[in-house]
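Job type: complex structure
Entries:
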Amino acid sequence: MKISIPLFSVFLAALLAGCSPKDDTEKKIDGLLGKMTLHEKVGQMNQLSGGEWLVESAAKGEVGSILNCVDPKEINAVQRAAVEDSRLGIPILVSRDVIHGFRTMFPLPIGQAATFDPELVRKGAAIAAREAVSSGVKLTFSPMLDIARDPRWGRVAEGSGEDPYLDAIMGEAMVKGYKEGGLASCVKHFVGYGAAEGGRDYNSTLLTERALRNVYFPAFKKAINAGAETLMTSFNDNDGIPSTGNKWLLTDILRDEWGFDGMVVTDWNSSGEMIAHGFASDLKHATEISVNAGVDMDMMSYGFISFIEELVKEGKIKESRIDDAVRNILRLKFRLGLFDNPYVDETAVDAYAPDALEAAKQTALESAILLKNDGVLPLKKGRTILVTGPLADAPYEQMGTWAFDGEADHTVTPLDALKDKFNVIYEPGLSYSRDNSTAGILKARAASSRAEAIVVFVGEEAILSGEAHSLSSLNLQGAQSELISAMASTGKPVAVVVMAGRPLTIERDLENCGAMLYSFHPGTMGGEALAELLCGEAVPSGKTPMTFLRTAGQAPMYYNHNNTGRPNTGTETLLEDIPIAAGQTSLGCTSYYLDSGYGPLFPFGYGLSYSSFEYSNLTLDKSKYSAGDTIMVGFDLENTGEYDATEVAQLYVRDLVGSVARPVKELKRFGRITLKAGETKHVTFELPVSELAFWNADMEFTVEAGEFQLWVAGNSAEGEALSFNVI
Ligand code: BGC
């Protein structure tokens, strides 16, 4: 039996909006549109990179938005030309990639996701917005909502990882935060971009409608419901159709089904790139396809400004489509108050305020994930420690990718911060993450004789992750693993801190240290946060937002996969144990790798603490639920260790039998729970049955009746299952 979740609410809202009298903004838009020539309309649809040199285009009404200019004086100069010198005085929209902070750099978005703390993420986005707006920026190309299941893809740094629910919650938090700070957001990249084949950036994807609806769409929909003002198309082609030319995506889904009335912008020249895709014959053709698919604004292909007028005259694009696009652009400008207040106060630039630095530090603290600890951490304050490794004092690198406006001389490195807490001997060992020379390692080894413990800071330089920076091997680069093993060979306690843009394959390094703390590039205040964690002034609470692999060859590997018909049994024979001349079917024929087994190195949601936690008394309020019910999930969480600490409790479900196979687990709720040492709390998660809905075999969004399992645990691989039924 199927219980349908009504979809008509969106249609109803659209219908009502259609019937209601036009509000003031819509009337103003109509008024302005009525005065615009086709050339001026097309000018609004043009987004260009640069600053003051665009003054002339602005005065002619040939540019609607600029990006990559953050100098208030230059911004005001362009704005003045648009408002005072152009015929209609329509202000310019200033955009920028404010991805994880503006001046104060917060941890990478993947690190922010590791906090499982949407409230803190919202606060960070509000601060980033405040700083960016004070420089004249009005729109950020963030949040990136791409589901990332393959750490070879360098852009995993920019999103919230592999889980649709966590992604949606974090995306919503960012949109709300930006809005609070007066900055419009742009959800990107619509859609499926993170599923690039082989993890190689820009590569094709092959996602079915059901996969899009169940996995890739939800975060976009939630962000739009939270008020995201704009959306960016993605570079990839899905099943042969580049997103920038995909009418089904940009019109049927986005406008007609979801009722989005914001602005759609291309990615950088993604309209022009449809020529290289083999989907458009030339820039004019690409323009025709993009505009007719539903794109409103062209980022940097120059196709719209060059060809739309001709295409309208030839009848290949209807002027009504252009009017709709311009309406979407003007609506945004009105909503942002640009017509009333187009200029930025050149004397009021806001950067590095105490609350910004505090929030950035708190985010870095909560985002660090303790992957291993055999008692090495925390280190007792005041001891003599050797600090080594190429990331110990790399202020630029620790800001990570997309830190255009961050300034390395404002960054606190671990070396700076550790000096306040320890007697520090510093010997870098390697000068950058790809450094292969071993001379420095010998020096570090020699210096270790004077130290009681060693902290090794390794990872990736900022350039190794982010856009176009894919990797096929995910081991630590250069001689970093050699540095770690040289430190292990001293016999001193060794703690390793990894600062990287993605989950690296660090299994061999784990064997050579007593403790490992994983910090996705932590930003401006990363050093202070890490120093506090290392000395025990703070206790780690971050959890992995992506599965950590043993080898890059396991990718894509993610916790919420389908089961297959031959799931592994956990008793599979590995390469070294296979007898010579083994019979073809003697290994059992299940789904695993002969060389790396089945499981990952660390599952999704994993992270240790200096304390320990015990889950008990998991109960449900009923055993059978109907469509309108809410499942009340209760459990006790005890802090069984010696530190006051925070645990991220996670609720997962499995729909055992579906009209299409369902994932083995899906995250449905999580919460950060802080407990004093020895304290127990009773916790309740509420889960409406409606949230068990999915796009089924008939492409209906429904909850299918039947048996479900439910877990509450500290990561996606633990916990005892409880069963319940939906009737
Ligand atoms: C990226 C986008 C970014 C845009 C503007 C593109 O290359 O894919 O994510 O927002 O550039 O800088």
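Summary: Residues 1-19 have pLDDT under 50 and may be disordered. DSSP finds 21 helices and 27 strands in the chain.
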